[in-house]
Amino acid sequence: MKDFTNTEGGEKAMKLALEKLGYRNVYNMSTFISHTEDFEKWKRVIDNSNNNDNNVDAKTEWGLRGDGDVWDDLLGDYQATVSSPTCYFAPTLIPLYPRAKIIILTRDRQQWYASFSKTVQLMIAKRQRLHLFQSCLPRRASAIVTLGNLLSKSGIGLGTGTEEECLEFFDRYYYTCRKAVEIEGRRREVLEFDVGQGWGPLCGFLGRDVPGGGEGFPMVNDAEAFGVWVGTVQRDLWWELGGYVLFYTGVVVVLVVLVMVGWKRGVGIL
After folding, report:
1. Residue 187: its pLDDT value, please?
2. pTM of the model
3. Which among 213, 189, 237, 188 has a CA at the least distance from the CA of 36?
C-alpha cells in the first residue's frame, strides 16, 4: 500500500480524486462489501486491536509487534485506502507502512457530526437491530452486518452514542493519528488537507500533475452520496436475500411433496 487517508468525511470525493490521479486500487467499505470472504481477516484485526487496547502513547499497537501479515493480505494489492474500515486502524498502519504517504482530512467537528448523525449513525442503528437475525441472513449480508457491529461495539469504530460521545471519539481519533505520526517521526510525510483546497496541495504532496482541461476537484455531497451508496447495497442484498428465501422455500416444498407422495404410497422416507 502506498498511501492512506484517515477520513470519515469527504471519503467519496477523496476516492474519486485519488483515482483521477492514477490510483486505480483504492480500498474502502465498498471493497469489503465486494470481498466479504475477507471477514475472518478483519475479525482477527479487531480482536488483536482489542487485546492491545489501541494504546498509541504506550506503543502497544499489535502491528508494531510484527503481526502485520494480515494487513499485507488485506491491502497488499491496493495503492491507497480511504475511510472505514481501514481508517479506524490508522495508528497501526502508520508504523507498518513506513513508505506510505499519509493524508489527514480536516473537517469542522460540528459539521462532521451534523452529517454523521443524519447518515452513518442512522444506518448503524438499523444494522445493530439486524444482529438478532444475522444467523438467518445469507453469508454475504451476515458478514457485512457482523463486521459493522464488531467495529461499533468494540469501540474501535463509531456507534450510536450521544453527540458528546461522538465528538469525543472524533477528537480522540485525530489525536491518536497525529500522535502516531509524531512517534514515528514522519511529519514530513503527512498532508493535513481540506477537500475545499482543491488539486494544488494534494498533487504537490503526492508528486502528481494537476489534471488538465480545467477539471475541478471532485466535490461530492456526503449525505447524498452516502444515501445513493446505501440504497445500492441494500437493493443488492435484498435480491440476494430473495434468492436465498426462494431456494430454501423450494427445498421445503420438494420435501413436503415427497412426504405426501410417500405417505400415499405407504412408504416412509424420513
Report:
1. 74
2. 0.73
3. 237
